[in-house]
Amino acid sequence: MIAILISVIALLTQVIIMLVIVQFVVGLLFAFNVINPHNEFAGALYRTSSMLLDPILRPIQKIMPDTRPLDLSPMVLIIGLSIIQNVLAELASRSM
Question: What is the reported pLDDT for 35?
Answer without folding.
Answer: 93
